[in-house]
């Protein structure tokens, strides 16, 4: 292995006549790049692709993901967005974000570019799984799609209770036209049947 010097390295640099081998666990530590796109090529530190972007971070620039300082130039471990050239981040940080976001949601943390950003990340060896982001697992945000369904008037007059309502008439439930987080039966707030909208006291 060209990184650790031990035997049984199984990955060879794809550059013709290079002859360097390395272990997959040693790749990141040694600055080797594996491209997780067809043709799934691997490169030793000497032949690893680098970002083709002319940019240098200003002094005191922090990684936009972990908020820790980045190096003073582009390196294997310090990357920049190829689109805006202002978003700097660590390789480990963008790799972690890629694993969480997946191909459908990964983008530049600053300018939100997708196309140019993804192409560059694939080329320099960031693994981006083709799946939904992890924050969609187990319907984590399912409750955001639920509609408010109870009367929040101080004194609810409906015999069936705050959680019940009718499709129309005096006991129809109106939601606040601004926040939709409060609701009232028409009669509980003294609203006539021809009134189509209502705002809660907070709004």
Automatic annotation (TrEMBL):
<dbReference type="InterPro" id="IPR011011">
    <property type="entry name" value="Znf_FYVE_PHD"/>
</dbReference>
<dbReference type="InterPro" id="IPR013083">
    <property type="entry name" value="Znf_RING/FYVE/PHD"/>
</dbReference>
<dbReference type="InterPro" id="IPR034732">
    <property type="entry name" value="EPHD"/>
</dbReference>
<dbReference type="GO" id="GO:0005634">
    <property type="term" value="C:nucleus"/>
</dbReference>
<feature type="domain" description="RING-type">
    <location>
        <begin position="63"/>
        <end position="112"/>
    </location>
</feature>
<dbReference type="InterPro" id="IPR001841">
    <property type="entry name" value="Znf_RING"/>
</dbReference>
<keyword id="KW-0862">Zinc</keyword>
<protein>
    <submittedName>
        <fullName>PHF7 protein</fullName>
    </submittedName>
</protein>
<dbReference type="Pfam" id="PF13771">
    <property type="entry name" value="zf-HC5HC2H"/>
</dbReference>
<keyword id="KW-0479">Metal-binding</keyword>
<keyword id="KW-0863">Zinc-finger</keyword>
<dbReference type="InterPro" id="IPR059102">
    <property type="entry name" value="PHD_PHF7/G2E3-like"/>
</dbReference>
<dbReference type="GO" id="GO:0008270">
    <property type="term" value="F:zinc ion binding"/>
</dbReference>
<dbReference type="InterPro" id="IPR019786">
    <property type="entry name" value="Zinc_finger_PHD-type_CS"/>
</dbReference>
<dbReference type="InterPro" id="IPR051188">
    <property type="entry name" value="PHD-type_Zinc_Finger"/>
</dbReference>
<dbReference type="Pfam" id="PF26054">
    <property type="entry name" value="PHD_G2E3"/>
</dbReference>
<dbReference type="InterPro" id="IPR001965">
    <property type="entry name" value="Znf_PHD"/>
</dbReference>
<feature type="domain" description="PHD-type">
    <location>
        <begin position="1"/>
        <end position="48"/>
    </location>
</feature>
